[in-house]
Every structure is written in C-alpha cells, then in structure tokens.
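User: I'm preparing a small set of examples for a lab meeting where we compare how different chains pack in three dimensions. I only have the primary sequence for this one, and I'd like the structure in token form so I can line it up with the others. Please keep the answer compact; I'll paste it straight into my notes.
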Amino acid sequence: MKKTVIAALLLISLILPSCRGMESEKAKNKYTAYSFDYFDTATTIVGYAETEEEFNSVVEEIEATLLRYHQLYDIYKLYDGVDNLCKLNVEKEIKADDKIIDMLLYAKEMYNKTDGKVNVAMGSVLSIWHAYRERGMDDPAKAELPPMEKLEEAAQHCDIDKVIVDSENKTVRLDDPKMKLDVGAIAKGYAVEMTAKMLEDKGVDNFLLNVGGNIRAVGSKPDGEKWLIGIENPDTENEEVPYIEYLASDGYAVVTSGCYQRYYYVDGQSYHHIIDPATLMPGTNFLSVSVVCPDSGMGDALSTALFSMSLDEGKKLIGKVEGAEALWVLPNGEKAYSSGFERYITEAP
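Assistant: Understood. Below is the structure token output for the 349-residue chain.
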C-alpha cells in the first residue's frame, strides 16, 4: 500500500532523451538517479555530464540538500540534533534554522496571495484527516469520515497570525497551544526550488529535478533543447492516454495537485487529501490542477490554492501572478487553460 501511495505521488514522470543533443554535444552523456528518501515520495534526478562521476557528485549535493530540508520540514518525525517542525508542533516554540524561517515567511506571503487557500497553520484540521485516511487505507472495511464537529473545533486553531516568526532571534512560536503546522502544500516545492537555486549558483546546468511530481528544470539539455514533461492523466485507469499534455520547459517548474494522489474510500466514495479551508472537506471542483511558473515553491502553493477555488476565481488569481500559467481538468474530463498556458504545450513524442 505504501509503495502504491508513493507511486501515486509521482505525477509527472516522462523525461525523454534528445538524440540530436547527444549528436551535437557528444562530450556530455545522460544519467539518471532515483531515490525514495525525501518527502515520503519518489525522487528522480536527470542530468547531462561528461562523466558518471561528475553526475554522481552533483547528485550527492542535491540529495544532501533535499535531506536537510526533509528533516527540517518533517511534521511526523523527530531527528537527533534537529529542531524541526515536528518539534515545533509538540513544544510550540523552537530555535529555528533559517530554512524554516524563510519557508514560513514565504508561506505567510502565499497565504495572503491566495486569500487563505494555502494555510500552513491548518495542521489541527489536516492531522485529523490524515489519521482517518491512514486508518481507512489500513482497514477499508472500517473506513469513516471525520465528524464535522471535530473538524470545526480544530478549525478554531488555524490562525496563521499566531505563527510568530522572529527572524532576528531565530525563533518560531505557535501562540495557540492547540495549533499545529502542516506545510504539505508548500514545503516540498519550496525545497525543490531552493535546491535548484543552489545548483544555479554553482553554475550547474542541464539537470531536471522531479520530487514527487514537483518538477524543476535547471537549464535546458546540452544542445539547448527544452525538456519534455508529460502531465499525467488524472484518469489513471486510462492506459491509452497516460498523459493529457506534453510541455516543453527550460528553467521552469511544473507542479500538479490532483484528487488521484492520496485518497481513501468511505461507502464507495473516494476522499482525497486536498482540503478546502472553507468547507473543511476535500475539494470537488477539479480532478487536477497543473501550474507552470519560474518557482517550484510558488507552483506548489498555487496548484493547491487553485484546486479549492472556482475556475473563474482561479483564472483571476493566476492572472495576477507574473510568469505563472495553469491547466485545470474538470470532473467531466474537460480541460481549461489560463491565457498563456498553451504556449508551453508541445507535440507528443
């Protein structure tokens, strides 16, 4: 079951080699590395390098960076010598690493930008859904929904203004003893973006990072050709059409949120993990939302926010974010696009 959940999180996995690139730049070869160690999902790293040793050296830097972010942002597990978000949820105040402080400040910014649709202070609500979902997946015959009164009580402890971030003294405090953080809507994308920026600062090019469907291109292929990325069909049983669109990307992020990722069944009805703050229930407006933008952290937050908005609301929001475009898949399978999304679409291989 866990392997199935991990596989479901890998939303966008098609990365095709370029024959022309191999011919025009024979000094660089294509290599691929895989891992399941970060953010409880599958990680794929694709890159071009002159030697496998050179590629592996870059991969080691990527994995060390992702591991650090994973441990700091983990809300379920404590690590020796690490003051992370799990510790914050228990103790309500910690001495915080800059990576936590910067991410939480960015999360507050995205809260305001999305009119509260992305709220990392919703942990009290999301932890209830998580517990019921885990039990329902472990024992489907006894699966049940969380009582609404329990969710509504927890929702009284989701005020993001009570997440006190003190950049000067390097502390984070939760000013509500019943508050918990859940950074699932932003942390993975933010970590991928910071890792990509680390590579760019070091002059690394020709790499593609895919952490559980949060894809970030670091440059293009060696010959200048863009990466080809497939957006998975939310109808995962349709083997004839595994991808609904193919995108060409260089230096951009592609992030998808969908109802087919983490879910369980109650009385034959599926309930996924993207909870609308307004209803405290899984969103039902779309099957999936994909965002293309220059920043993976922003893409992560926007795809979550758009999933819980109406199509009109979502188009207005995406229109205000420079460099961001979106694709919505409606419950009937139809697709809707923001005004500039289609310029990224390319032909199927």
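A couple of notes for your slides: The chain is about 35% helix and 25% strand. The first helix runs from residue 2 to 9.

User: Perfect, thanks.
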